[in-house]
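Go through this one:
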Amino acid sequence: MKNLALATLAAVLVAPAAWAETNSADGPSGAHFATAEPVCTVDSSQDVSCTGTTIGGVGHTNATANLSATYSGTVQCTNHGGQVVDVKTQNTDATSSGKLTPSRNGQLVVPPLSATAPTPQQLLAAATCPNGNWTKQLIAGPTLANFVYTITFAGFAGPYFSLVGP
């Protein structure tokens, strides 16, 4: 039994986690998912893709869907004499969003959203060395640090739907 508990704990620590939450207080009173809730996946390139959905019972309430992903990479700076500056972690954000307008029948169609991982060149361009004479080198990354997907209705305090990962 103890080995099973340790194996389960190890699987939880290794597997990326994502959690989703629907907060009906932050949406029109009749709002409900007419199709499945959105699901976000991360591919081998670290790109994040979230499925679309349809929300019924929204009346004439507009909304915004937003996907924000944070990527990190480790950059090392070297001067002409070979001195290396302490390794710095560089974070870069990728976002995708859209304003959503309900159709005549009170349904809101949420399209799929995706965020593309930065290229090594983009991470290097965002990194800062002590001065322009130093050479930047990417030694790790880009790596997906986290992502947040939300659907927020106009006029409400918080998101109706949130999905956070990994």
Summary: Confidence is low (pLDDT under 50) at residues 1-16.
